[in-house]
TrEMBL record:
Domain spans labelled YjeF C-terminal: 223-494
Magnesium recorded as keyword: no
Record PROSITE patterns: YJEF_C_2 (PS01050), YJEF_C_3 (PS51383), YJEF_N (PS51385)
Binding site for AMP: 410-414, 439
UniProt-recorded name of the protein: Bifunctional NAD(P)H-hydrate repair enzyme
Role of this protein: Bifunctional enzyme that catalyzes the epimerization of the S- and R-forms of NAD(P)HX and the dehydration of the S-form of NAD(P)HX at the expense of ADP, which is converted to AMP. This allows the repair of both epimers of NAD(P)HX, a damaged form of NAD(P)H that is a result of enzymatic or heat-dependent hydration. Catalyzes the epimerization of the S- and R-forms of NAD(P)HX, a damaged form of NAD(P)H that is a result of enzymatic or heat-dependent hydration. This is a prerequisite for the S-specific NAD(P)H-hydrate dehydratase to allow the repair of both epimers of NAD(P)HX.
Organism encoding this protein: Rhizobium paknamense
Residues binding K(+), per UniProt: 63, 123, 159
Enzyme Commission no: 4.2.1.136, 5.1.99.6
Subunit: Homotetramer.
Record note on cofactor: Binds 1 potassium ion per subunit.
Record keywords: ATP-binding, Isomerase, Lyase, Metal-binding, Multifunctional enzyme, NAD, NADP, Nucleotide-binding, Potassium
Length: 505
């Protein structure tokens, strides 16, 4: 995964090491703090020019130092600025102590802050490094600001949000805007942290990007730059069989729609052929509702084994509307040598014995993609789901390694994790995706990409992003049918595609 700088996600600990590396390399650490604080002041003046007062809440560490610098810059700009401190400011050390002296003004205890009409709050209490629940004084300030309806500009991260997991540690400010430095943190993208940040601005304070890149691990924000090179491309020699064959298993006659949504999405994702495999009367129902998608009668395991004798049957989607039970388990295990997207009923069918599924796909190249929502995840990984010490990324990575599969942990902040330790957080999904059938479409997109030979992690990451992009195309009044019809995989670059590059983040 080749990550460009603007897709980096650094844990708070990694960012602290970047700061230390910058200081060790001879950079003026106080100069970096000055640039950070002045960027906050500039954002405050730009976004809240009508403020009657800037109330700067300064914490006991370097985040507070940024706040003191911002307060001094706002004062020089002629703005009414009051500072309120947490803890004993006389005990500040290093750059933060220097920043407080440079403020050269009074400050009052945080407990003395009373929101006034026209206040803009600059939250410089903790930032991304907080690892414990906020104390009562901070919780009271959060409540007072919320009740007063004052806009908040957060420095690095709204105080009370865990920079690694996005979780709220007791209480947290709801920011209108957040200014962070050099790179985003996972807590900026994971819920509820993403919502609490408001709009997010990443400001370059001058630390060499090589130092940031040195600490950037295998976690990134999902973006076409990460998987564009793996997207299937058409050539003059392309034909339908070279573009791959996707098979989607249909449920009974009364539950065929989910599979058809997956099949249509797989076709739109570029698979050369898509077959709906169904039994009995479901075959006729599907035949009456499809054109470019083929149908195949497939009753039981003997039929499936015969079907698998053709090596061109490369990728499968099992689960949407299929039904929970022995047949789903039997079919999934029969596909252990093929690329498989297991979704919905397919996942739930293994709740009593997930190890059987995980063991079947343990050898060789990763070829299993699991797409659980929160409830399905808890059925397959009950211990991880119950572990409150782990964030969503950590749970997904642990589950992926255990399952020998790529995990798509679905939600507004979907996390895609690979057994090899790579992970991305997706951010382009609009709220309109919360509609029946959208997960079936996602399974089909991923299946269609797998059928064309895309590696599992890249196919899943691309599928999730394209799913969000399709929802944006469908705009309002979104249904799953709209979503499937708006899937577009050809991203514009110098060699192919029709998607306007300006639409990419």
């Amino acid at each position: 995964m080749r990550t460009k700088a603007f897709h980096f996600l650094l844990s708070p600990q990694a960012m602290a090491r970047v700061d230390q590396a910058a200081a060790s390399s001879g950079m003026d650490s106080y100069g970096l703090m000055q640039r950070a604080g002045e960027a906050v002041a500039a954002a405050a003046l730009k976004r809240f020019p009508g403020a009657l007062r800037y109330a700067v809440l300064c914490g006991p560490g370097n985040n507070g130092g940024d706040g003191y610098v911002a307060a001094a810059a706002l004062h020089r700009a002629g703005a009414i600025t009051n500072v309120f401190h947490l803890g004993e400011p006389e005990r500040l050390k290093g750059d933060a102590a220097r920043a407080r002296l440079a403020w050269n003004g009074d400050s009052e205890p945080l407990s003395a802050y009373q929101p006034m009409e026209g206040d803009v709050v600059i939250d410089a209490l903790f930032g991304a490094g907080l690892a414990r629940a906020v104390d009562a004084a901070v919780a009271r300030a959060v409540e007072a600001v919320e009740q007063a309806g004052c806009p908040v500009l957060a420095v690095d991260l709204p105080s009370g949000v865990d920079g690694l997991t996005g979780a709220v540690l007791g209480a947290a400010f709801q920011a209108s805007h957040t200014v962070t430095f050099m790179a985003k943190k996972p807590g900026h993208l994971l819920l509820p942290g993403r919502t609490l940040c408001g709009t997010l601005e990443v400001f370059d304070i001058g630390i060499p990007m090589r130092l940031v890149a040195g600490e950037a691990g295998t976690l990134a924000e999902n973006h076409p730059d990460l998987w564009r090179a793996s997207l299937p491309r058409l050539s003059g020699a392309s034909h339908k069989f070279r573009r791959g064959h996707l098979t989607v298993f249909s449920g009974p006659a009364s539950a065929t729609g989910a599979a058809r949504l997956s099949a249509m999405a797989g076709l739109k994702a570029g698979a050369g052929l898509v077959t709906l495999a169904a039994s009995g009367s479901a075959l006729l129902v599907n035949a009456n509702h499809t054109t470019a998608i083929m149908v195949k009668r497939l009753e039981g395991r003997e039929d499936l084994d015969a079907y698998l004798a053709d090596p061109r049957m490369a990728a499968f989607v099992l689960g949407p509307g299929f039904g929970v039970g022995d047949k789903a388990r039997d079919f999934a295990l029969a596909l252990k040598e093929r690329a498989l997207v297991l979704d919905a009923d397919g996942l739930t069918s293994f709740k009593e014995d997930p190890a059987a599924l995980f063991g079947a796909f343990a050898g060789g190249q990763t070829r299993l993609v699991l797409t659980p929502h929160e409830g399905e995840f808890s059925r397959l990984f009950p211990d991880l789901a119950a572990d409150e010490s782990l964030g969503k990324v950590e749970k997904a990575l642990t589950a992926a390694a255990r399952a020998h599969a790529v995990l798509v942990c679905k939600g507004a902040d979907s996390v895609i994790a690979s057994p090899d330790g790579r992970a991305v957080i997706n951010t382009n999904a609009p709220s309109s995706l919360a509609t029946a059938g959208s997960g079936d479409v996602l399974a089909g997109i991923i299946g269609g990409l797998l059928a064309q030979g895309m590696p599992a992690f890249e196919a899943a990451s691309a599928g999730v992003w394209l799913h969000g992009d399709a929802a944006a195309r469908a705009r309002t009044a979104l249904t799953a049918e709209d979503l499937a019809l708006n899937v577009q995989t050809q991203l514009s670059d110098k060699s192919s595609g029709s998607l306007d590059q300006s639409r990419l983040p």
